[in-house]
Task: structure prediction
Amino acid sequence: DTDPKTDTKTDTVDQNQDQDQNQKRKCAMHDDPTKEVPCSEMAANAFSYAIELDPQNENAKHMLAAVTADATFVRASNTYVTQLFEDYAGNFEHSLVEELGYDGYQRLRRAFDRSFRGDDGDGSDSH
Result:
């Protein structure tokens, strides 16, 4: 038997350890593979450079705020969120049904069929 309070505390400790590991993780520099820098620093520099090249790059702005834990960044911009959803829309149903196993629409259809004595699942109408 597990105590939910203990499990939550353990999860928090594990998350803190993961964050510590991520902060300590080092990445090799492209121009000098022997030089190691924190990966978060390398990512921040790359996103900053992307914004320099394209000040309208909402993805880079969002990712820079995320990787630097920018406390002034209150929420993702409407442009970023809209683009995120538009980019994902084509894969949504596949992810929901195939990867996550969602079948709520099938259950609902069967319930309607039983309730209204309609289609028995073979596509024919019994009325």
Remarks:
- The first helix runs from residue 4 to 24.
- The longest strand covers residues 26-28.
- Helices lie at 4-24, 39-53, 58-68, 78-99, 104-116.
